[in-house]
Amino acid sequence: MEKFELHILGCGSALPTTRHFATSQVVNLRDKLFMIDCGEGAQMQLRKSRLKFSRLNHIFISHLHGDHCFGLMGLISTFGLLGRTAELHIHSPKGLEELFSPLLAFFCKNMSYQVVFHEFDTKEPVLIYEDRSMTVTTIPLQHRIPCCGFLFAEKPRPNHIIREMIDFYQVPVYELNRIKNGADFVTREGEVIANDRLTRPSEPVRKYAYCSDTIYRKEIARQIAGVDLLFHEATFAQTDLARAKETFHTTASQAARIALDAGVKQLVIGHFSARYENEQVLLEEAATVFPNTILAKENLCINL
């Protein structure tokens, strides 16, 4: 099965602590790297995770709060120092290019590469990236400013050829692509050989959903139904529900409720408030609702 990994670079919230870096993650799909949010220290964590800078070409910013984008300027500068030539594409809600243009003009006057900004609307799901193997779609969230999560989805792959059957029916090479994509085969004698006799299904597609800062929104469950892995912020415990509502964040039990309603396979919670010296209380709270829950931690790698 092709590589599909999630690397946690940071899982803390806005207030810095000695336990956690600010929010940042990397999705590694077939050795293409996609960064999600870029809090302070993201490039240091990228090094620690032994991920190659040269394979990172797209960065997705969920919203324009500092703990999700303050590491971006340093990363852009480092790419320049490394002599990067490939374009760097940054996808974000409206406003990031306006904020960064004067910084780039001042700090990165003679960069060897181009930074390309792509702004998206946060009110409805939007397809913001697509290549041969995957798509990235926004997940509308509700925070104090415009904010979106991201749904990473593999594209269906062609069926696998059963070589013995292909040889038995003497299928010409030029027919193989059609057969991989579901076509039957007609022999010279006019006999129709059903596709399921010539192929076996490919592996099921995998999906990862990232839900950043948001108040509890049960509507999220519909869009992320059945995903293999869900990251959902769990800034607070249920005992701090009033604070969660005030700051437009989610509690651990609410995050678990989303996972349960969506029928996801696994939940990882993060974006921990600095008030909790031991996040075990958040894990226990979430696991009561959705048992297959784990805590995010720096340099954790999860295989989908």
TrEMBL record:
Keywords: Endonuclease, Hydrolase, Metal-binding, Nuclease, tRNA processing, Zinc. The keyword tRNA processing applies. The keyword Hydrolase applies. Zn(2+) 2 binds at D67, H68, D213, H271. Pfam families: Anti-Pycsar_Apyc1 (PF23023), Lactamase_B_2 (PF12706). Zn(2+) 1 binds at H63, H65, H143, D213. The active site is at D67 (proton acceptor). Its EC number is 3.1.26.11. Residues 204-272 form the Metallo-beta-lactamase domain. InterPro entries: Metallo-B-lactamas, RibonucZ/Hydroxyglut_hydro, RNase_Z/BN. Binds 2 Zn(2+) ions. One of its GO terms (molecular function) is 3'-tRNA processing endoribonuclease activity. It catalyses: Endonucleolytic cleavage of RNA, removing extra 3' nucleotides from tRNA precursor, generating 3' termini of tRNAs. A 3'-hydroxy group is left at the tRNA terminus and a 5'-phosphoryl group is left at the trailer molecule. Its cofactor is Zn(2+). CDD domains: RNaseZ_ZiPD-like_MBL-fold. Zinc phosphodiesterase, which displays some tRNA 3'-processing endonuclease activity. Probably involved in tRNA maturation, by removing a 3'-trailer from precursor tRNA. HAMAP family: RNase_Z_BN (MF_01818). Belongs to the RNase Z family. Homodimer. This is Ribonuclease Z. The lineage of its organism: Bacteria, Pseudomonadati, Bacteroidota, Bacteroidia, Bacteroidales. The gene is rnz.
